[in-house]
């Protein structure tokens, strides 16, 4: 699997979560600042979005065993 197809898979997964725009904001911030630590507000927003998605999926499939 190539790096490009790996990236495509990540993007597809992030699109399903509804958090892809926040992911892009984190990437842009890191590219601009060169320091992920300077981007903590964006990282926290992205993390919260992903956590919400996980919780929704957990509830959605809670009855499935």
From TrEMBL:
Coiled coil: none annotated. SUPFAM superfamilies: Cysteine alpha-hairpin motif. Keywords: Disulfide bond. This is Cytochrome c oxidase assembly factor 4 homolog, mitochondrial. The keyword rRNA-binding does not apply. It comes from Drosophila kikkawai. Residues 19-52 form the CHCH domain. InterPro entries: CHCH, Coa4-like, Cys_alpha_HP_mot_SF. GO terms for biological process: mitochondrial respiratory chain complex IV assembly. One of its GO terms (cellular component) is mitochondrial intermembrane space.
């Amino acid at each position: 699997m190539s790096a490009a197809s790996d990236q495509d898979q990540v993007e597809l997964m992030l699109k399903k979560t509804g958090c892809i725009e926040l992911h892009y904001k984190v990437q842009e911030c890191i590219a601009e600042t060169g320091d992920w630590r300077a981007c903590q507000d964006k990282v926290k927003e992205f993390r919260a979005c992903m956590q919400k998605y996980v919780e929704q999926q957990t509830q959605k499939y809670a009855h499935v065993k």
